[in-house]
Amino acid sequence: MLPNKKGLEIIRTYMKIYNGSNEDFIKEHLVKELIENNVLVETEDETYTLKSENEEEMMHSKVGALKEAVYKFVKPSNIENLGNPRVLDLCSGLCYNAISALHYNKNSKIDMVEICEEVLFLTLFLDIPFKEHEIIKDKVREYFLNKIGIKYKSKYDNINIYVEDARKFIVNCNKKYDIVFHDAFSPKRDPTLYTYDFLREIYKRLNDNGVIISYSSSIPFRSALVSCGFIISERESIGRKRGITLGYKNPNFKPNRINKIDERVIALSINAIPYRDETLNLTKEEIIKNRNIRKEKLREKLIKVGKYISTKQIKKGNIPEDILKIQEENLNSSEIIIKMRREFFKDIYDEIFSIY
Ligand SMILES: C[S@@+](CC[C@H](N)C(=O)[O-])C[C@H]1O[C@@H](n2cnc3c(N)ncnc32)[C@H](O)[C@@H]1O
Predict the structure, then answer these.
(1) Which end of the chain has fewer beta carbons closer than 10 Å to its terminal beta carbon, N or C?
(2) Residue 106 sits in the same domain as residue 153
(3) Domain that holds residue 292
């Protein structure tokens, strides 16, 4: 899913006249036009966000675009306490996450990946109160000036910008990261970057103590992370009831557990069946349709072998006592989920999870 079509159209008209020396002119007109067309919207911390293709979803929540970057991504990543963190900023958009990462750790080395160059262009004309915005703007400027044939070399070698599909980037990437910011639109509307197959590629490119962070608490997403080998964890979020998700690679790490209801649902419900994209090039419609087919197949299989429990009953804790008791053990959430699955499905475990 992309940012709002009307918004992109407006930005494109200004991209066409951009020459590096008319930024003040563009700033005055572009921002005004986007606001007048109701596609650029002020959030509660006075920073701006763009509407998405689907009018109901914004690129950021209304509590604040910058605030969200700080409290949903950067602070939970513990970047402040790392030496020279290597950061993969997926879905860079208006660049709030990258700017905030630099603000909290100036030694960060950041690879930014964004499919839509128009949103990157827009950051040149926004007022974002962290001074590190100037660094990111300088890199964005380098990208757009080089594109129109004007030679310009930014002095900030610690930032790279890749304008491409994150799926393509990840398969061609041979670097390792300490932190991955995963900031795609919500999986219900676009699961492209929430599939087991994409997340597995991220897992391979994380350092042993690395972490992936997402604002999403989606069940199939968390379930996919468990299947990839991540230790899943959650933290309170600003502006929404459900927490953000963190996935750690180090199997010896024992982070906060996710809530117990989600643990049970991920372990036993057919709603936890992950999105798949084996070739990493399916459309969002294909990914959703294929998952629905596998989900139905799994439901039929579980009913047939007498192992189907509805999500409503699982949430209430109406599952066998010995399986429920596993949640009292001193394990991390991923270990709990895998143990509940193994002990509940027993000898049909492999068959069930081959449908996953
Ligand atoms: C929720 S916004 C991200 C906000 C951003 N992190 C920021 O700090 O402003 C989602 C972004 O993902 C981008 N996107 C969507 N699909 C993508 C893909 N397959 N690869 C890379 N970026 C993608 C969209 O263009 C949009 O800018």
Answers:
(1) C
(2) yes
(3) 262-355
Domain count, the chain: 2
Per-residue pLDDT at 76: 97
16: exposed, middle or buried (C-beta count within 10 Å: 0-12, 13-18, 19+)? exposed
Neighbour tally for 245: CB within 10 Å? 25
Q: Which of 49, 89, 115 to mutate to test the pocket of ligand 1 (most atoms within 8 A of CB)?
A: 115
Q: Which tokens is 148 given? A: 């129109």
126 and 266 in one domain?
no
pLDDT in tens, 100-134: 999 999 999 999 999 999 999 999 999 999 999 99
pLDDT above 90: residue 356: no
**Cα–ligand 1 centroid distance for 211 (angstroms):** 19
d(CA 333, CA 328): 11
- Binding site membership of 93 for ligand 1 (Cβ less than 6 Å): yes
Structure confidence at residue 240 as a pLDDT band (50, 70, 90):
confident
Q: Is the CB of 97 under 6 A from ligand 1?
A: yes
Together in a domain, 196 and 266: no
> Could you tell me if 218 and 186 are in contact, meaning their C-beta atoms sit under 8 angstroms apart?
yes
What is residue 198's predicted lDDT score, i.e. its pLDDT? 98
Q: Evaluate: CB of 327 within 6 angstroms of ligand 1.
A: no
Domain membership flag for residue 110: yes
Tell me: do 118 and 166 sit in the same domain: yes
